Amino acid sequence: MLNMVERLARAMAIAGGLVLTVLVVLTCTSVLGRGLNTLSHSGLLPDALGAWLLGLGVGPINGDFELVEAGVAFAIFSFFPICQLYGAHATVDIFTSSLPTKINKVIMGFWEVILSAIIVLITIRLFAGLEDKIRYGETTFLLQFPIWWAYAASFAAAVVAAVVAVYCAGARVIEALTGRPVLPYSEGADH
Amino acid sequence: MSMLELGYLSFPILLVMIFLRAPIGLAMMLCGIGGLYFAMDGTNMFMSKLKSETYSTFSSYSLTIIPMFLLMGQFATVSGMSKALFKAAESFLGHRRGGVAMAAVGACAGFGSICGSSLATAATMSRVALPELRRYGYSGGFSTATLAAGGTLGILIPPSVILVIYAILTEQNIAKLFLAAFIPGILAAIGYIITISIYVRVYPDAAGTREPVPMPERIKALIDVWPVLLVFGLVVGGIYLGWFTPTEGAAVGAAGTGLIALVSGNLSWEQFRDSIIATATSSAMIFFIILGAGFYNGFLALSQVPQELSGWVVGQGYSPWTVLTLVLVFYVIFGCLMDSLSMILLTIPIFFPVISALDFGMSPEHVAIWFGILVLIVVEVGLITPPVGMNLFIINSMDKETPMTHTYKAVMWFVTSDIVRVILLVLFPAITLFLLPN
Known about the structure:
The structure holds two protein chains of two kinds.
Chain A: H1 2-42, H2 47-56, H3 64-85, H4 101-136, H5 147-178
Helix pairs in contact in A: 1-2, 1-3, 1-5, 3-5, 4-5
Chain B: H1 3-19, H2 24-40, H3 44-58, H4 65-78, H5 81-93, H6 99-112, H7 118-135, H8 140-151, H9 153-156, H10 161-170, H11 174-202, H12 215-223, H13 226-240, H14 246-263, H15 269-303, H16 305-315, H17 320-335, H18 340-357, H19 364-383, H20 390-396, H21 404-427, H22 429-433
């Protein structure tokens, strides 16, 4: 079970990471295009070269930031499952670290249950947001793509996050009740 | 209960939750949601906020810079540049007394210019420099303390994830904040180098010696670090000159460090995957705190607590400098307990209006930038302050032979250097504001 959940969480993170990487490349291309376009208009280049470049249509990618916004939103939602599974959320453990392990397990289980409830709530409300966007047919300003597409992608990632969060909560509760380790990771806030 | 009382009541509740080990983002979110529930007498307000706030936070253009900077830092850690930087610094400084430790600080400063995170800088540089320090006979505690302190340069020297968050919270210009962080960052490195040279004179046994490196080799080692200079210059210069937005700058930086890693042959699929996983956990952690802070600050603003508090402080007629000192002391103490980012997100919405309302004889923008740099430095002091500084743990875990107490003892020298620097920067705001255009 853990194996499957971990594979799912890692696959999701890598999907988000690949989207992020594509956005990096897209943004750099756009910056380069804009730079060349400015250069061609500036008269610093030989006329023929400038005209040739402009003829090729070099310039910024239209609506690049809309893609960045939608893509990063998806990436962040896809990053949640792995953060959840590796217990990477920032916490302050100096006051609880002196308590017995058993109590710490109970505390961790308690917060994990609440955290998973909040993530499930966020996912459900995101769906309500998605329905709104479909109903009103809102589109982005430049590219005119329906915003609900971006919501739908994020919602799909959020569903995975919710599933993993519930699994983690269950695992932590079992750990607290039986004392048997289920999740191999606890600490890991690295930033 | 009035809104204002509700707002004040939320502080202790939040702190208790955090100290009981609630994830910080979750604690802020619960307080925000709870506050909105009681304030609005029902769930309507936060349920409708939840419908759009998560997506709009995660897709906010100004925040898209964060995963990109994190990716840039992750690529930087696998790029092999940490090794090249250390080699270059060591070839120039290594033969001096305490020189290998000084080189480690210099290399940390260089690495900080392509990585925006302290813990990543500390961990990456330790992997390279710790074995060398031990090889040349540097004592365990001194070596780990040097690297823990050097690691804080990762966040002081731009680009810096924390400064980005501060800029967004206080609506300041990111390029100007990066520029303002530059001199304090260099001062930090110089301060640490002076600390090292004093330390090795007080404890001559703490450092070994080594042969000087011939000049041609030094030049060669220096030339090897050009990609770092190029990426740093392009990112920070490009943002500052307005060639691109900060997010675009971060994308250029990520592509830059990614290319260095790729060309040097260090970016295998496994490395790429690990970089993504590390970026993923940090990004999700940060965005969850930002989301929680969004809800909590939304509630606080509604309760009018920040305005009320700043009005009260101004009304008390305390000298602005007293208030500033108290705030900074608060940050040093809390910085020992909490990670810097959560601290900033939690406290800036409350403290910033207070500081802005005071008269320091400077323009509001200058006060905002100066205060941001000061806060950045004092929360970083927390990272290396015993007994709980996070950098200390990261590095000590990499050197099993050195007991934590040895690191604690040696690091106090660096903490002292930090405190001296903070005092200097408080007394002379011009040091921070020097590079800014009028």
